[in-house]
Design a protein that fits this description.
Layout: H1 18-30, E1 43-47, E2 50-53, E3 58-61, H2 64-67, H3 76-86, H4 100-112, E4 120-125, H5 128-143, E5 147-151, H6 160-165, E6 182-185, H7 199-216, E7 223-228, H8 242-255, E8 258-263, H9 277-282, E9 289-292, E10 303-308, H10 309-312, H11 328-343, H12 346-367, E11 371-377, E12 380-385, H13 396-407, E13 411-412, E14 414-416, E15 422-425, H14 433-448
Parallel strand pairs: 3-13, 5-6, 5-7, 7-8, 8-9
Antiparallel strand pairs: 1-2, 2-3, 4-10, 9-10, 11-12, 12-15, 14-15
């Protein structure tokens, strides 16, 4: 059987197996401990949603490089696109020579990314953090304003600016001082909204938090942009309610502030749209700038910032760009990834998978006291685990135990959330029905084993 159609299978007496253990020991001796990994896996080859380790164990991957493999591992036509480009040239720095792959990909992104404006432009970078940092620079360049507003629970990266923007300071220990002019507001986390509020009242409560920032943090005339994730990733897979987004869009329009959607993790079909901010656009509140990365190129390092030509062309020359930005191999991969996603309706695949998974998770929510909330948009979903449904006290311990139990049976899960009490679902969208069923069975057994 081809690996892409295989099911999870652990053949070694324990994990890691002998070969993997030796490589992991070499890892500890040769690379920083701060590049942490809790999974006892050393990948040998991977296809679709599956990978085989160096000892022959087969794992079902519901992390996918944290949302990088929406199109699956080793997709043959993506491999071929990179091979074809490699035979021509690896690299062409766009500040020195032009390569057409960058132009073709920019044209495609301008066609599909739902930002405001008739004419759009896209620049490419290498990582999500670079995209977010450059989006901030673009917003400052356009508005001439120094400050930005971000949110609790946010994750935007590990550069100095994006560590300042990120809410969870475990990602920034000892790294300060941070850039000035970054102000944080409470994100609309409806599951943990103040008790007694209706959903409508809770949304108004969170809207007021944004308005209060202009009094307590920075006057609106000094705010260049409001930056948010349509569905928070590290924050716990918390969707931004559309009525709240509408209100924030209105505030931005009234105050001359740009709205930036960080779609690094939500983009490329995961949400049931090519971009989660398409839901915003459908409701009349499209963002001004969208950043994207992760699944854009099937695993090749690439990210993007897309905005209107009016905004992009006001950026001072020389302030954006970089040596490897828009690498030729990565652009070739991305063009083929988008082609596949459009031809095979990957947003539709995401919705089909999500429908099945969410139905089962809701059953778990009824059955298990520890399953506090199930939520998400499309295939970007998570379960929040609690000690008690009434108090909603975070249950970090059970999440850690479930993750370890699942890996012992061949399923990779990853935690998220401010309290580390959410398990996220980022399975490649090429997962088979049999693999999905097998994963759900392993997952539920791991929950039951830890009750």
């Amino acid at each position: 059987m081809e690996l892409k159609n295989a099911l999870p299978k652990i053949i070694t007496p324990e994990l890691p197996g002998e070969k993997a253990k030796k490589i992991i020991e070499r890892r500890a001796d040769s690379i920083p401990n701060a590049v942490k990994c809790v999974y006892p896996c050393v990948m040998a080859k991977a296809e679709g949603a599956m990978f085989e380790d160096v000892d022959g164990n087969i794992f079902l991957d519901w992390i996918g490089g944290v949302g990088v493999t929406n199109v699956g591992y080793s997709q043959p036509t993506v491999v071929k696109a990179v091979q074809d480009q490699a035979e021509k040239y690896f690299h062409s720095m766009m500040n020195i020579t032009t390569h057409e792959g960058y132009i073709k990909l920019a044209e495609k992104m301008n066609e599909i990314v739902p930002v405001k404006g008739q004419k759009k432009k896209t620049m490419f970078l290498n990582s999500g953090a670079e995209a977010d940092e450059n989006a901030v620079k673009i917003a400052k360049g356009y508005t001439g304003r120094p400050n930005i507003i971000v949110f609790s629970g946010a994750f935007h990266g590990r550069t100095l600016m994006t560590m300042a923007m990120t809410g969870k300071k475990a990602y920034a220990v000892g790294m300060g001082p941070f850039p000035d002019g970054v102000y944080r507001v409470e994100y609309p986390y409806l599951y943990r909204a103040p008790k007694g509020l209706t959903e409508e009242e809770a949304i108004q409560y969170y809207v007021k938090k944004v308005e209060d920032a202009f009094i307590e943090a920075s006057p609106a005339e000094y705010v260049a942009a409001i930056v948010l994730e349509p569905i928070q990733g590290e924050g716990g897979f918390v969707p931004a309610p559309i009525e709240w987004v509408k209100a924030v869009r209105k505030i931005c329009d009234e105050k001359g502030i740009l709205l930036i959607a960080d779609e690094v993790q939500t983009g490329f079909a995961r949400s049931g749209r090519m971009f989660a901010s398409e839901y915003w656009a459908e409701n009349g509140c499209a963002p001004d700038i969208v950043t994207s990365a992760k699944s854009i190129a099937g695993g090749a390092p690439l990210s993007a910032v897309t905005t209107s030509a009016e905004i992009m062309d006001k950026v001072p020359t020389g302030t954006i760009g970089g040596t490897y930005c828009g690498n030729a191999l990565a652009c070739a991969a991305a063009l083929e990834v988008i082609n596949i996603m459009e031809k095979e309706d990957f947003p539709g695949k995401a919705l089909k998978i999500a429908d099945k998974v969410m139905n089962i998770w809701k059953q778990w929510q009824e059955k298990y006291e520890v399953v506090g909330d199930v939520r998400g948009v499309g295939c970007m979903m998570g379960i929040e685990f609690v000690k008690d449904k009434e108090t909603k006290e975070p249950n970090t311990e059970i999440v850690n135990n479930i993750v370890q139990e699942a890996i012992n049976h061949g399923l990779l899960l990853e935690s998220a959330g401010t309290y580390g009490n959410v398990i996220r679902f980022l399975a490649p969208l090429v997962i088979t029905d049999e693999q999905l069923d097998a994963g759900l069975e392993i997952y539920e057994n791991a929950i039951k084993a830890n009750l």
